[in-house]
Structures are given as C-alpha cells and as structure tokens.
Design goal:
InterPro entries: DUF2252. It holds the Pfam family DUF2252. The protein is of the alpha+beta class. It folds into two domains: about 5-160 and about 325-395, no CATH class; about 165-260 and about 270-310, no CATH class. It has helices spanning about 5-10, 15-25, 30-35, 40-50, 95-110, 115-135, 150-160, 165-170, 190-210, 275-285, 325-345, 355-365, 365-395; strands at about 55-60, 70-75, 80-85, 90-95, 170-175, 175-180, 185-190, 215-225, 235-240, 250-255, 295-300, 305-310. The strands form four sheets. Strands 7-8-9-10-12-11 form a six-stranded antiparallel sheet. A two-stranded antiparallel ribbon has the order 1-4. Helix 5 crosses helix 13. It is globular, with a radius of gyration of 21 Å.
Length: about 400
C-alpha cells in the first residue's frame, strides 16, 4: 500500500464506510475532484514544507477552491454570490487560504485543458485583485444589482429558480401526498427507528429554535449525498410542510460537523467552541455579508450538525462551460478574489484575527505574491502526481471495503 493510500484511509476511517467508497469513486474523476476531496493533504503538506511568507491572521473557510463560491439566498431573502462552504473554517494565516485557492485554479484549468499560460495569468489576476481589495480596506458584496458579466447572468438565472422547481426535482407525488423521492441518486432511505428520532428532533428544533421556520412540521427525511470532501459525513434532507399555509413546503439540510481538517496543522491558538457546528456557522456569519436562510445548529445523538435551508438556486458557476470564454473567466476570478479579501476584512479584528489596518498594509505589499504563486504552481504538480497514484491504488482495489465473514 502506498503512503498516500495510508494517509487517505487513516483520515477517512471515522466516516461512514459505504459513503467513503462513493467518495473515493468520485475522486477518480480528475485531479481537481481529487483535490476537492483531500483538503487535509494540502494542509499537512503545507505544514511540513512551511514555504509561505508571513501573513496576518484571518478567519478562513479552510477549503477554498473555485467551486466553493456560489449563489445562495440570504436570511433577508436577497440573492448573493459569495464563498459558501465553511466546514473547515478556522483562524489561520491569510496566505493559507490564498495558496489553496491559487492551487485550485492551476489544477482546475489543467483538468479543463486550458493552457498553462492562461492559468498562471488567472492566478496573477487573483492575487493582484485580492491585494488591491485588502489595500482599500473596504469589504464589498455581490448581488444581482452589483454583479457584472457572467456572474450577473448567473445570479439572474438563479433568481428565477423557484421553490416549486426545487420541490419537483426532489420529491414525488403519491396518493395526493408530496414525498421525498428515493429515485434521486443522491437520496437514500433512512431506517424506521432513525427516521422517527430525526423527525421528532427536527420538530423540536422548529418549535424551540429562534432560527427555525415557524408553523412547519416534518413530513419526510432521507439520507443525502452532496459535495466531495464531505462524503462520508452524516447528512439528512427534511421535507417540511406549513401547518397554516396550504401546499407550502420547505427543504432543510442537516449536516454532521466534525473537527476542521486544517486544525492539526495550524499552530495558532484556537477558540474553544461549544460544538464544531457552532464553529462553522459563527465563522460563516463573520465572513459572509449576509448569512444563508435558516442557518442554525443542533446536537443529535451527541453529534453536532449544521442546519440550513436547501435553496432553489444554482450552486456554482460551471467553468467547464466557460473554458473558451476568457473574458467571462477573467470576471469570475476577479470577483472571487474581491470576495475573499472582503470576507477577511469583514471578519477582521474579531477574537484574534488581524484588524483592517494590518490587512490593508499586507495588501499594499507585492513581495509575497510571487512566493504564493510559485508554491501553488509547484503544489499543483504534486497533486497531479498524487492523483495518478490514487487512481492506480483505486484500480488495484486498495480502497475496497473487506466484507465481514
């Protein structure tokens, strides 16, 4: 067994074995999908190499890459384009987040067969815009009225999506009743005892949490698959029905929260959170301009979970469809850089993170940019080699679950 396989199996050992098998299968798609599923490798390698220049401490989402930006509806009912995954959120040097994002550009562009020269120019653009936004010291947000180009089109398209369309995709109608569909390949049946406990738990959350929707009750629950890095965690989708409005439904996602995979490799002293779910949503609320709808936490069977509404919006911009549209890609990368800097500015000066003056001063310096670019380029090549080793191990059955006799 290769050293890489041992590292992967050790990290994924606490997760649901059957779902981890699906995760490994998904990671064979290409090097970028592999990168998305191995955030822990990035930070372990980074800690061992320690190659990045000194940078201010900031709150980071931890697993930043080009597909962890997307559209969502805020609790103010307005639509935003922003970073949207904070499971690995933590206090760390600003360069950690920047380097992971820059590496993702190199890997994703290579998977899309976009020329290396264009990839490097996009990374340079990202670093320049990120620095410029920090230097200005003022956070921005992107919603339909302020969005430009392809991001504007993306948000306008997402804004037209409706709850009815989402409900139609996720449910079936049987004997005049709406039920969560098990025909959806991302949905799995939950056993009777667990289903009963989950239903009672979420009904109690609705009744007692100030973050929950009023006058709703649970009508169905399934196990849900989503993402890549999070495959193997416990995740449930609930169908809620209004008790006072006819034919009014909500879909709610409840996702298990575990320790940030960045935590073992960051020497910075961290806050003592009550639960991992509290860590995730607190950092999310600090970094996003407006939080997503129904964002909340709960503890079920002594495990913490993040709860939020599943929304009828497009998740991420599909770069595969933009590979020949250089101007559109330029606009998206430029926006992503501004949003990262804005999230760090917005959360600056809070419980250990550097204040706006320090972040602004870091943004005015260009010395560190070339070092980050060089590391990202070098590490992207390592990821490609690791991916090739992973596929080889996968085909040789290294990751298969041994059946108990």
């Amino acid at each position: 067994m290769s050293q890489l396989a041992e590292r992967l199996k050790t990290f994924n050992a606490p997760l649901l074995p059957e779902m981890v098998q699906l995760k490994y299968e998904a990671m064979t798609e290409n090097a970028f999908r592999f990168y998305r599923g191995t955030c822990h490798l990035f930070y372990e390698d980074l800690a061992n190499a320690n190659p990045l220049p000194l940078s201010p401490l900031t709150w980071i989402c931890g697993d930043l890459h080009i597909e962890n930006y997307g559209s969502y509806k805020g609790d103010n009912k307005l639509l935003y384009f922003d970073m949207n995954d904070f499971d690995e959120g933590i206090l760390a040097p600003a360069c950690y987040e920047v380097a992971r994002m820059a590496t993702s550009i190199f890997i994703a562009f290579d998977a899309l067969e976009i020329e290396p020269e264009k990839a490097e120019k996009m990374v340079q653009l990202f670093l320049k815009t990120y620095s410029t936004t920090l230097a200005k010291g003022k956070a921005i947000s992107i919603e339909p009225r302020t969005a430009k180009g392809i991001v504007c089109n993306f948000l306008n398209s997402a804004d037209k999506a409706t709850e009815k369309e989402l409900l139609k995709k996720r449910t079936i109608s049987k004997k005049k009743k709406i039920m969560l569909s098990l025909q959806d390949e991302r949905h799995f049946k939950v056993d009777k005892k667990l289903k009963h406990e989950l239903t009672a738990h979420v009904n109690e959350w609705i009744a007692n949490s100030s973050d929950g929707p009023y006058n709703y009750e649970v009508k169905g629950v399934v196990f849900r698959l989503a993402g890549t890095g999070s495959l193997g965690l416990k995740r449930y989708l609930f169908l809620l029905k209004s008790t006072n409005t006819k034919n009014k439904y909500l879909l709610v996602d409840m996702k298990q929260s575990t320790m940030s995979s960045v935590a073992p490799y960051v020497k910075v002293k961290q806050l003592q959170w009550q639960t991992e779910a509290e860590r995730i949503i607190t950092i999310q609320k600090r970094m996003q301009n407006v939080s997503s709808s129904l964002l909340s936490t709960t503890v079920f069977r002594d495990e913490s979970y993040v709860i939020q509404e599943l929304q009828p919006v497009k998740d991420t911009i599909k770069f595969k469809l933009l590979k020949d549209e250089y101007r559109d890609i330029y606009q998206v990368i430029d926006d992503m850089a501004s949003l990262l800097a804005s999230a760090q500015l917005r959360s600056g000066g809070i419980q250990g993170s550097s204040n706006i003056d320090d972040l602004s001063a870091f943004g005015t310096s260009a010395e560190w940019q070339q070092e980050v670019l060089g590391y990202a380029l070098k590490y992207a090549k390592k990821v490609k080699k690791d991916y090739e080793q992973f596929v080889k191990d996968y085909k040789n059955g290294v990751f298969e679950i041994k059946k108990k006799e």
